Amino acid sequence: MSARLEADHLFKVFGRRQGEAVERLRAGADREELRADGTTAAVIDVSFTVDPGQIFVVMGLSGSGKSTLLRMLNGLLEPTAGHVRFDGRDLTALGDRELREVRARKISMVFQHFALFPHRSVLDNAAYGLAVQGVPRAEREKRAARALELCGLAGWETSWPDELSGGMQQRVGLARALATDADLLLMDESFSALDPLIRRDMQDQLLTLQKTLKKTIVFITHDLNEAMRLGDRIAVMRDGRIVQNGTAEDILLRPADDYVASFIQDVDRSRVLTAGAVMDTSVTADAPLCRCETASPTTPFAELCAISARVPHRVSVVDGAGRLVGVVPQQRLVGFLGDGPADPVPCDAPDGKVAAHA
Amino acid sequence: MPRLHLGDWVDSGVDWLVAHLSWLFDAVKAVVEGMYDGIDAVLTAPQPLLLAGILAVLAWWLRGLVAGVLSFAGFALIDSLDLWDQAMSTLSLVLVATLIALAVSLPLGIWAARSRAVSATVKPVLDLLQTMPSMVLLIPAILFFGMGVPAGVVATLIFALAPGVRMTELGIRQVDAELVEAAEAFGTTPRDTLLRVQLPLALPTIMAGVNQVIMLGLSMVVIAGMVGTGGLGGAVNEAIGQLDIGLGFEAGLGIVVLAVYLDRLTGALGTRLSPLGRRAAAKARTTAWSHRPRPAVAVACVAALALVAGGLGVFGGPSGTAEATGENVGRGKEVKLGYIPWDEGIASTYLWKEILEQRGFEVTTTQYAAGPLYTGLATGQVDVQTDAWLPTTHAEYWQKYGKRLDDLGRWYGPTSLELTVPSYVKDVNSLADLRNKSAEFHGRIVGIEPSAGMMGLLKDKVLQEYGLKGSYEVVDGSTPAMLAELKRAYAKKQPVLVTLWSPHWAYARYDLKKLKDPRGAWGKGDGVHTVARRGFAEDNPEAGRWLKDFSMTEQQLTDLEARIQQAGKGKEQDAARAWLADHPGLLDKWAPVDGGAADSKAAAATDSRAAG
C-alpha cells in the first residue's frame, strides 16, 4: 500500500537568509548557532510517511516545531525546503488556488482552541467547509447534521458555540472537519485544552469513530500518554528534528536516546504493552502444547497478566492462523512492569526459604 | 538655525495643485455637490413633521419606543425653532461626509490591517490630518473646491477620516488569529475570509468607528460653516458674529439633537448589523418601552409616511420670496452675494438682494468669514460683496487678491477705527489720557482677531505714538469675545478698554465714548466699498453700473440696520423690502431702468385700482 502522506526532508526557517540557513543545517549546524544570526529553525530535515487509515502522532514539547510541521502539511505554511506529497501529489508545487481546493476537499483540520466561528450557529459551523466548497444549503446542512450526529451532538444544531461546554465545542470542531469527507485530518493539540476526564472521552470517541471512518489522521500532542493511546505510529520531536519515529512499543521498549527515555518514565506501561511486545520469541520449541488458555499478539498487558495468573505455566501467544509465535513466562511479565526485561539471577537458597540477611 | 522655508514650499505646492489638478478637484466637487443636493432634496421635500415621523420610526425600529418618541420630540423642537432647513442641510452635509469617509476609510483600514507597511504609512498621515488645526486645511480646501459645501465636506472628511481607518484596522486585527487560520485551513479564499469571518467579527468595532466619524463630522460643521456651507454651522457663526446668545444656543441645540440622534442610531445599527449583537439583543428582556417593531412593520411605517410626504410634496407649492417687479433686467441671471456678518454688511447685502430680485435677478446670499470671502471672490465663487473696508482694515486681503478683484467704489464712509471706553469712565477722553491709567484697565486692551488689520495698526503704531507700549497689553481674541467682554463690563459698570470701529451697532446699544486721536495715529478712516469678482461688471453691465453708483448716508444706513435688527433673524430681506417701500424712489434711484420706472408705477396704479 502506498503512503497517503509523505513528508520529504522538510525544513522551515523563519527570519533572514533562509536558503543559506537550510544549507548550514544540512551541513550539521544546530539551532542555537542560527538563532545568534536572527534566524529561527522551526523544523529541521523532517521526513516520514503516513499510511491510509493510520493515526500518526507527532509528540513534542512546546517549541519543538510540531505545530509548524503540521501547518506545512496542508500548505498553511510553505516549507523553506523539502516536499509534502499527498496521494502522490506534491503540495509544495501547487499554486494558491489549487492548494485551497485541496484544503477544502481533501484535508481538514481541528484546532487546539476549537476555532469555532462565534457568529455562526453550531450547524453553520459544522457546515462551514461545505459552504466554502459551494455545496447547496440544503445538502450541506444535511451532511453537517450527520457529522454532528456522529460526534454525539444531535439536537444541538441551533445552539451557538458559546452556549456549549469545551468538550462539546471541540466535538463541533471535529464535526466540522468530518463533514467535508476529507481523507486527511490534521489535529493540532485538539484535546489539550480540555480537562482530563473530557479529554479521555474525546480520545475514546476519536478511536471509536476511526474504527468506522478509517481516516488518515496526523495528531499533534505534547502528552505522551495521549500519543500512546491514539497513535499507530509516534514521532517524537525535539528542537525541530524527529528524534524517534516508531510504534508505541518501539518508543517504550527501545527509546532512541535519553531524551525519549526521560519522557517514557511517566508512562503507564501496562496500558501500552501487548502480548506481542512482551513475548519471548526465541524459545518456541519447548512451548506448552496443552489446551490451556492462550493469548494473541494484540492482547493487552493487563489481560495477559490475568491469563498468566490462571495458567500454571508460561502463556502461549498464538497468531490468527493458530500458529505459535511466542511465549510469555510470568517472570517476564513482572519484569516489564519494572524498568524492563531482566534475566533471572540464580538464588543462593534454592529451596525457596525466605531468609533475612543479618 | 537657518530658516526652513516650509511654508513657501506648501504655498507653491498648493498653487501647483490648483493649476494642474483642477480637473480632479472639479470632478470631486461635482460628485460631492451631486450627493449633497440629492440628499438635501430628499430631506427637505416632505413636511418637517412628516420627516420627523420617518426619522422617529427608524429610531423606534432600531432602539425602541422611547428612542422613537424622543427623536420625534427632538426634531419637532428643531422645526419649532425655525431651524429645520438648516438642520437638514447640516444633516445632508454630515451624511455626505460620512458616506465618503467610509468609502475611503473602510478599504484603507482593511488594507492597513493586511499589510504592516501600509499601516505604518497610513498612521502618521492620519495623525497629521486629525491634529492639524482644521482652519489651516479650510483655506486650501476653498482654493481647490471653491466656497460652499464641497470645501466644507472635504474639510470635515479629512478631519473625520482617521477613526474610520483606525477602528477598521483595529477591528480586523482583533479577530482571533486561530479563526482566520481555521478559515484558511478549510480553503477559504482571502476575499471570503474577509467577508465571512473578519468583517462580521470586526463589525462592532467598525461601527464604533462609523459612530466616531459621524460625531467628528458634526463637530466640524460649525467650522465648515465659515466657508459658506450654511446649515446649523452657519447659523452658529452668524449668532457668534452678532453676539446673539439666544440664536447661538438654539442652533447649538439643533446640532446636539442631530448628534444624539445619529449617535444612538449608529450605535443601535451596529447591534442590529452584527450577528453577535443581534443575539445579545434577542436574549435581552424586552419591556413595553424598549419594544421594537418587526422590520416589516417599520418599513411599512416609513413607506406610508414617505408616500404621504411625497403626495404633499407634489401638491404643496414652493414658497419663494423673489418676485420681479418693473423691468425684468436680470431675466433670472444668477448673482451670488457674499457677506461678513457685520451689521452694515448684512444690511447692504439684503438691500441689494431685494433690489436685484425686483429687477429680475436670481440672488443667493451666503455668509462667510472675511478670509474665505475674499478667496471666494478671487476664485469667482462669489460675485459681489458690499462690505470691503478699504484701504486699511482689509489691506491684507486686498494685497493678496486685489489684482483679481474689481473695486466698484465706496458706498459709505468714512469709517473710523478707535479705542473705546464706556461713557461712565469719566477721566479718559483721548488716547493721550491713557498714560498712567493702565491700572484702571488692569493694563489690558481687549482686542479682536489678531489677523485683523486694525490689530496690527494698534500694536505697531498707535501704542507707539502715545507712549503706551509696555504699560498696556493687547489681548488677542475674537470680535464676539471682545463684545462679550464689553457687555459684561458694561453691565457691572467696570472700566473696560476695547478696540472698536464705526459704524458699529455697539454704539447704538451701549453708551460708549470713542477715544480721540489727536495725532492721527489710526490714519484716515476707511470707506466701505463694494468689491466684485473680476469681470462681473462686464458680464452684468446694468447691475455693475448700479453698484458703482450706489451710496448711502449714515442716516439711511443706521435706519436700515435698526429695521433689520428689529425684524429679527431670518427676516432680513422682508425688513429691507419694507424699508424700501417706506422710501419710495430709492429703488429707481439706485437701480434705474430706462422707462421702466414709469411702467412699473403705471402697473402698480392699475393693480391698486383693480383691487379697489
From TrEMBL, chain B:
GO terms for molecular function: amine transmembrane transporter activity; carnitine transmembrane transporter activity. InterPro entries: ABC_Gly_betaine_transp_sub-bd, MetI-like, MetI-like_sf. Residues 594-612 have a biased composition (Low complexity). It is found in: Cell membrane; Membrane. One of its GO terms (cellular component) is ATP-binding cassette (ABC) transporter complex. It is a multi-pass membrane protein. CDD domains: PBP2_OpuAC_like (cd13639), TM_PBP2 (cd06261). The chain crosses the membrane at residues 49-78, 90-113, 133-162, 201-227, 239-262, 295-315. Pfam families: BPD_transp_1, OpuAC. GO terms for biological process: choline transport; glycine betaine transport. Its main location: membrane. It comes from the Bacteria. Residues 87-266 form the ABC transmembrane type-1 domain. Keywords: Cell membrane, Membrane, Transmembrane, Transmembrane helix, Transport. Residues 590-612 are annotated as: Disordered. In the C-terminal section; belongs to the OsmX family. Belongs to the binding-protein-dependent transport system permease family. This is ABC transporter permease subunit. It comes from Streptomyces galbus.
